[in-house]
Design brief:
One of its GO terms (molecular function) is ATP binding. This is Phosphonate transport system ATP-binding protein. Residues 2-244 form the ABC transporter domain. By secondary structure, the protein is α/β, with parallel strands linked by helices. The chain has a domain at 2-87 and 162-231: Rossmann fold. 36% of the residues lie in helices and 22% in strands. It contains eleven helices and ten strands. The protein has helices spanning 41-48, 71-74, 93-98, 107-112, 117-129, 146-157, 176-193, 204-210, 235-240, 245-251, 261-270, and strands at 2-10, 16-25, 30-34, 56-61, 64-65, 78-81, 164-168, 196-201, 213-218, 221-226. The chain has a six-stranded mixed β-sheet, with helices on both faces. A four-stranded antiparallel β-sheet has the order 2-1-4-5, covered by helices on one side. α6 runs parallel beside α7. The radius of gyration is 19 Å and the shape is globular. The relative contact order is 0.16. The protein binds adenosine-5'-triphosphate.
């Protein structure tokens, strides 16, 4: 579904954001990218929808290489969910969800806001499926809570039934309970539709609960790639450069052989 082939990113100011990252995300997988601030998570996600062009390597979506001449074809296949929701606050819930249909509309229809009846029905269905009610349809987004706003963001991302959804720290500005609810909703929506999700997170506990696979970045390189149950608490050091006290305490109770050799290798690579 999504393939990063030996990608690297060096920004114009010389910052090396990604180093030789290879990652194949199969169809239907919920893949979470972990990493401390500046590790390269957003750069990786932005590469997957062509907002950032790799300085080395290539990215393919459904076998199509992302390039200037393929972007228009690829974009409608990708739904985006943002950390700050990226909604138009003065517009209604329905209007914001309908925006998700724009990439597949002829420019003139998009400019005039001429959405088809099918798109309007789809928006209503999605608004209901993310747990909002009929009375929310015409409510301004600015009147909603953060959790409700991200539900609108999720509904918008699924408007075109994209095979791939990219979620860049979708719960970073939400409280722990709302974060849990929103991620649970995102995973349910993705599972029901067989959608592939690449989602960056800061919360290791949520990654372990919701991900099929965790990919951890440190200084732009992959230091862990595996299932949540293979994620050893001692990997915190490799990923974040330190372990939170609770995790450190937990890690001291683990026998060394619990860590598979591959992951110990990752620890060494990062040190
Ligand atoms: N447009 C840019 N120009 C120069 N450097 C950039 C640019 N965008 C990001 N960077 C740098 O690239 C590195 C990776 O940034 P990125 O935003 O991908 O990290 P992140 O893991 O998403 O961080 P956070 O969790 O804080 O969002 C950082 O050092 C950042 O400062």
């Amino acid at each position: 579904m999504l393939n990063f082939e030996r990608v690297a990113m060096r920004y114009a100011d010389g910052t090396q954001a990604l180093r030789d990252v290879s990652l194949e995300v199969p169809a239907g997988q919920f893949c979470v990218v972990l990493g401390s601030s500046g590790a390269g998570k957003s750069t990786l996600l932005r590469m997957a929808n062509g907002l950032v062009r790799p300085t080395q390597g290539s990215v393919q979506v459904q076998g199509v290489r992302i390039a200037a001449d393929s972007l228009a074809r690829i974009r409608p296949r990708i739904g985006m969910i943002h950390q700050q929701f990226n909604l138009v606050l003065r517009s209604t819930v329905a209007e914001n969800v309908l925006v998700g249909a724009l990439p597949a509309m002829p420019t003139w229809r998009a400019l005039l806001g001429l959405f088809t009846d099918e798109a309007r029905c789809k928006a209503c269905e999605l608004i209901a499926s993310v747990g909002l009610h009929e009375q929310h349809l015409l409510r301004r987004v600015s009147e909603l809570s953060g959790g409700q706003q991200q539900r609108v963001g999720i509904a918008r991302a699924f408007m075109l039934d994209p095979p791939l959804v990219l979620a860049d720290e979708p719960v970073a500005s939400l409280d722990p309970q709302t974060s849990h609810d929103v991620l649970s909703l995102l995973r349910t929506q993705a599972r029901e539709r067989g959608t592939t999700v690449l989602c960056s997170l800061h919360q290791v506990d949520l990654a372990c609960e919701f991900a099929d696979r965790i990919v951890a970045l440190r200084h732009g390189a992959v230091v862990f790639d595996g299932a949540p149950d293979a994620f050893d608490p001692r990997l915190f050091d490799a990923i974040y450069g330190r372990a939170p006290a609770s995790v450190r305490a937990e890690a001291t109770h683990l026998e060394p052989e619990v860590v598979p050799p591959l992951h110990m290798g990752a620890l060494e690579m990062a040190s």
